[in-house]
Protein 1
Amino acid sequence: MSEKKPKKVFIDGPITPEFVAKSIASHSTKKDIGAHSIFLGQVRNDLIGDKAVAAIEYTAYPEMADLKFHEIREAAFAAYPLTCLHIYHSLGTVLAGEISLFVFTSAIHRAEAIKACEFIVERIKHEIPVWGKEILEDGSAVWKVNTV
Amino acid sequence: MDTEKSKITLLAFGQLTDITGQSTWEMEDISDIDQLKAILIEKYPALAQAKYLVAVNMEVIRGNATLKPGDAVALLPPFSGG
């Protein structure tokens, strides 16, 4: 059993800069933290043929995703001495240039925060049942394929 | 117990919903994953070319496995989150 309770990961629509800023601010009371590492995934305006991606529509298998996010959290806390860990992922429509993934790790020293953040992002990309449908500028759509 | 007992629930996600035309449905009298795949390909030939994993009750199963009534069988195309 873990002392860390399951947390809400999915956010409807984009993750706003204000949300990220508030998350940072809320850690000012935790004065044993010496380092934060933040990963922000942004929707890119890739060219598909000759049309640019205007947005991504994210869907998920939410129950399985929650289970996998929990496993990844547990693995991260087991592998790295983290003080704090937050993961947020968008569902629904996120426009090109907006943020769809926010991973935030905090530790006493920087090495652990940085390594843990990368570990978590890689596992999310490979293990979380989320799918992105790329909506192109002419309104047509293609399913996103992640780079390995 | 009841007439629903032989049913499993199918869940399709992402690009697979373009092939199946539905995201959740029930199927009866399916004994294992291999049988399920064969029946699905018969119904949706494009599935034969599709890349996907099968998860039974949210656990990814590689290869064949027996299915029991009430199982939730999810067809998961390659993940593309983040």
Note: The mean pLDDT of chain A is 95.
Protein 2
Amino acid sequence: MRLDLILRVGAKLILPFILLFALYVQFHGDYGPGGGFQAGVISAGMVILYAIIFGIRAAKQVAPPRVVEMMVPGGVLIYAGTGAYTMLLGGNFLEYTPLAHDFLHAHEWGIFSVEIGVLVTVCGTMIAMFYAFAERGRS
Amino acid sequence: MILANKAVENAADHAVAAAAANPPGITKLTENAELFVMMVLLTLLAAITLAIIRQRNMFGVVILAGIYSFLMASVMIILDAVDVAMTEASVGAGISTVVLLATLHLTQSIEYPQRRSVLIPFFISVVVGAALVWGTSGLPAFGAKTAPIHGHVAPTFIQYSADHKMPPNIVTAVLADFRGFDTLGEVTVVFTAGIGVLLLLQGGWRVTGNGRRSEDDDEQQGMDSSGGTA
Amino acid sequence: MKEAILEFAQHYNYFITIFLMISGLFIVIARGNLIKKLIGLSLFQTSVYLLYLTPAKIHNGTAPIYDYAYDTYSNPLPHVLMLTAIVVGVATLALGLALVVRIKEAYGTIEEDEIFSKDPEAE
């Protein structure tokens, strides 16, 4: 509809790779640089890029505001829930050793779960902030 | 048990590989090259900072802040802080630039000339800076292995990864495991700040207008709902 | 002479850190534009990243990702602290900017002097 065809096609080409990179950063964080904070910001950056190029209404169909707002406290709950679960298993708060029989495996599970919580909160917060600022400009 | 075998195997390879990674002749050269690249990048950082101070067009300031973040990420790479560099490149140059630009769109993009004198702030800054420079004389030299920071908990963290008790990325292990409670606090801070932004910008108490948050369905006639708040 | 230059080069990180720090301080004190103040605050914050990460580095060390081929790693603890500080920093920056947006809507300006002149109680 406007002269930003190259931008639109180019963005559509790179958007899935940004998401893939975010997932790589998230799940490869144990072995290379990365983790929940970076992956959350990168995946939020994907939604923000989509919103900038295709409009905020299209972005809201990809990431509905209700879901995004639930992600903000949801990640903290996942994180704290991991701690509560380890307490139920008989350990201390956020002591991952009871999660599995092998020390390394237990701690990898714990780190995995905690990083998911970080990802959800950071991603949700960044997208929610962007929506808040962008909507303020429209109304 | 496979892990234990692997550890023994690794220990055998260890000495040979370490010697191959750091041949003694090259060390001095890489040390100086690192120092030189670092000094160049840091000088560029200082130049960008001066430009940020002098620039009155806020759009220019935001773009300069983005350049600053990328330079800072490069410096962090040289400081071997790859996780931090990745975070700084995506957060500092990505998200914060977007948020700053959104704010400029909502406010104004020109900074008015100052009526007040800058002499007193300049004096305060110079005095604080001089005191801090005087304090640096007691700090350890850059890259010194004998610095006190390396003596306390860091060897334990590294040993845990070396013994295959923790994932290889020591930063992730410390972030999510050794200092998991700390990170829970940080996540809570991010959560609190996010809730604060949502309350401030989408809350139901606008200055003027009909005072409710905009949803998708009222965006069609949303233009008259709370325009012209100023 | 050569020792003096080497000494200067080895403490150059700290000098630049201090320069960035006092630049941020100067912007926060001297500039009246609220967005500029927030950028100054984040400059100050970035200088703190540098202050933490500089001593963590060891010459000929490598990034703190364990591999049996290396035995010298930079200190991971400052990295962890600064990693979380960056994300928390952008969250609080956005909170400050949201406050700036509200101030703009209430006062029509984001220059400190004009806000004070419109707000007689603040004088």
Note: Chain A has one domain: 5-138.
